[in-house]
Amino acid sequence: MASQATPRYTVPGLTVENASTLIELLQLRLHALNDLHLTLKHVHWNVVGPHFIAVHEMLDPQVDRVRDMADDVAERLAALGGVAHGTPGTLVEERSWKDYSVERADAIAHLGALDVVYTGLIEDVRAAVGTSGDLDPATEDLLIEQLRDLEQFQWFVRAHLETAGGTLSTADATTETGAAEKASKA
């Protein structure tokens, strides 16, 4: 973690130790949201095919909300006494996931890949909600609100990948490229 020293102060009613734990947790959430923002713009710019305009226009509100989420996380992190590290170099150095790998592709392929991206992100946010809930209800509340929005965004993505019978074309895909391939073939 980039120079994550224990804060010298934090919000009233929270120990500096617990604030330090939350700061580390929020820093990873900030990296994930900044990465998601850029990934969504990448898809927005590189989507092609008959579903182009639907996907292109669906992503801009998601981008805007994800940017707002990142800002909220950074501000909460600072309020707890931490330093919000938002530079690209720090993000790349500290993230635990690989870069989005689908380039110019059909809309359905990108949506398949985004489904996997959202799944990983949502799982991480759920874990962060669990950790923060034991320490700080304000941070927990922030993350729960973001979780609801991220789950809705994944639902929007999955609506394009689901059959009328309720089967998800990306079911069992574990990588974004695998999901993109499965979605394209469906």
UniProtKB/TrEMBL annotation:
Signal peptide: none annotated. It holds the Pfam family Ferritin. GO terms for molecular function: ferric iron binding; oxidoreductase activity, acting on metal ions. Transmembrane segments: none annotated. InterPro entries: DPS_DNA-bd, DPS_DNA-bd_CS, Ferritin-like, Ferritin-like_SF, Ferritin_DPS_dom. Residues 23-163 form the Ferritin/DPS domain. Belongs to the Dps family. PANTHER family: DNA PROTECTION DURING STARVATION PROTEIN, GENERAL STRESS PROTEIN 20U. This is DNA starvation/stationary phase protection protein Dps. The lineage of its organism: Bacteria, Bacillati, Actinomycetota, Actinomycetes, Kitasatosporales. The gene is dps.
